[in-house]
Amino acid sequence: MGAVQPTPEPSGLSPTGKVILGMIASGKRTGYDIKRLVDKTTRHFWAASYGQIYPELKRLEADGLISGRAEPSGGRHRRVFELTDAGREALHDWLRSDDSDPSELRDEGMLKLFFSDALPERRVPNIRAMRAREQRKLEQLLALQEHAAGGAPGMYTTLQLGIGATRWMIEWCDAAIRDLSSHDTTQE
Amino acid sequence: MGAVQPTPEPSGLSPTGKVILGMIASGKRTGYDIKRLVDKTTRHFWAASYGQIYPELKRLEADGLISGRAEPSGGRHRRVFELTDAGREALHDWLRSDDSDPSELRDEGMLKLFFSDALPERRVPNIRAMRAREQRKLEQLLALQEHAAGGAPGMYTTLQLGIGATRWMIEWCDAAIRDLSSHDTTQE
DNA sequence: ACAATCATGTAAGGGGTTACATGATTTG
DNA sequence: CAAATCATGTAACCCCTTACATGATTGT
Fold this sequence. Notes:
2 copies of one chain form a homodimer. With 188 residues, the first copy, chain A, is mainly alpha-helical.
């Protein structure tokens, strides 16, 4: 009864806190820098928006994990953050933890496929649409590849994983389209 | 200025609304049934909780897309829902739409891998932990397979997709562990 | 001059989970 | 008779995105 104790995260870090600490670990960054970096690198498996980033920067600073100082560029408002010792320790603690939240996926194309018995003639078109989305994603990842050529191993490895998984999905779609097209051409 | 108009979904259906209509399309269901079905089938790419399901059932009924009637089993409170004509139409409209929200992934293991340059000795152990999670997921999916043997094509196909993708991930982890273990045994 | 980019921040709302409260029925 | 399962529902939070407000600087 009474107050519900908020399930304490193993690391104490919020989801967005993790990505912020990680991004700041490789150099001083502004909130804006972090957003750009996330969009360019982790976006396909871990997104973040301004509405999360700026408030979380405040919280992390209040908790003593990062420290920011004003570094205006011209007359332009600008706060650059770096890790404190406690922040680096928190990051390492998190990276050392063996348990992670299970990966979460939400895929509307798969849901449509799952329910496609309610409208069987849409099954193949929907798989074609899935394939098109994966193709677009693949192109985006491949575009990042050259930019990330001389990058750190972590970045390189996750990008290769993303590219490989996306290619696998495209091939799966092709195989599924072939299979379904052969033995029910139009009618059941 | 003034009121912010809430970006209207193409189909008008909320995310949870989609899964509810789809689940009810194949037979009359209670909220409890829907939760069980989701956990047994779509959970690995589309989750839903009681806290979403029951309020959404009310909304869908208020919108005339489903209709529920009391069918107590013994003295036990029980409301069974089925699609109205409008509900079936809404489901079909959604299934016919070619655009879907892009698939979203949130994977803490990949984020740790991305930042692993901050603690390189944890790189391989973290991939091993990812592999273990995927292995557990594979076992769950394989367990569903026999239960879903005589199931509808949509269910069968999405399950095969999940199994295939998970297997691909496990193999990727194995290859990555091999590669990383060979050319930096302990030191850089 | 105009547009693009750099830069910070907030308000409102959407969507979600967890934990709890409640109680009947079935199964071992 | 105890435990599991069936069944409904809500309150409290958490996390997140979108859209907006604001303004300086840089590039064309």
